[in-house]
Design goal:
Helices cover 11% and strands 54% of the residues. By secondary structure, it is mainly beta. It has one domain: Lipocalin, CATH 2.40.128. Strands 1-2-3-4-5-6-7-8-9-10 form a ten-stranded antiparallel β-barrel. A hairpin with a 6-residue loop joins strand 2 and strand 3. It comes from Algoriphagus antarcticus.
């Protein structure tokens, strides 16, 4: 009796988590929105994810660009960092980022970016294709869709607003 109940519960939990992330097809038009709709993201955020510790900083939008940085470390060692730019593109915006190893060697080629296209924006929540950010009070949750060897998983990061 316990095994079917546990299986059902795990399925529901996984379904809820996976539903947090939306995807756009390559030929699908992005959602509409303005970078200024994301002013709730501004600040210094600390938390956990990827099995270690994370920090994310977002500056206020200027000229249709909202700049952010991210760093991840585990057991006191920096693993990687990111430079992020949410860019206004007509009636939509996208999140563009570059990853760097601890020695600042890049993951992407010079002219390449990892790009998350806008799906939808709401009050204190934004859905990019493959990434969702949601603020509740002084906490932000991020859900990131990752695919490795054909297997899709959702990584959850949890942050609280912090002081520098």
């Amino acid at each position: 009796m316990k095994k079917p109940l546990l299986t059902t519960l795990l399925f529901l939990i996984c379904s809820i988590t996976i539903a947090q992330v939306k995807q756009l097809e390559n030929d699908q038009e992005p959602g509409k929105g303005n970078v200024s709709d994301l002013d709730w993201l501004v600040g210094f955020w600390t938390g956990t994810g990827f099995g270690g510790e994370c920090e994310e900083v977002w500056m206020p939008a200027v000229d249709g660009n909202m700049i952010g940085t991210f760093r991840f470390w585990s057991e006191g060692k920096l693993i990687f960092s990111e430079f992020m730019n949410i860019v206004q593109e007509g009636e939509t915006f996208s999140l563009k980022l570059k990853h760097f190893n601890a020695d600042l060697s890049p993951w992407e080629e010079k002219e390449e970016w990892t790009i998350f296209r806008l799906v939808e924006v709401g009050e204190n929540i934004v859905w990019f294709s493959g990434l969702t950010m949601k603020r509740e009070g002084d906490e932000i949750s991020l859900w990131l869709a990752l695919t490795e060897d054909g297997v899709r998983t959702i990584e959850e990061l949890k942050y609280v607003k912090s002081e520098f």
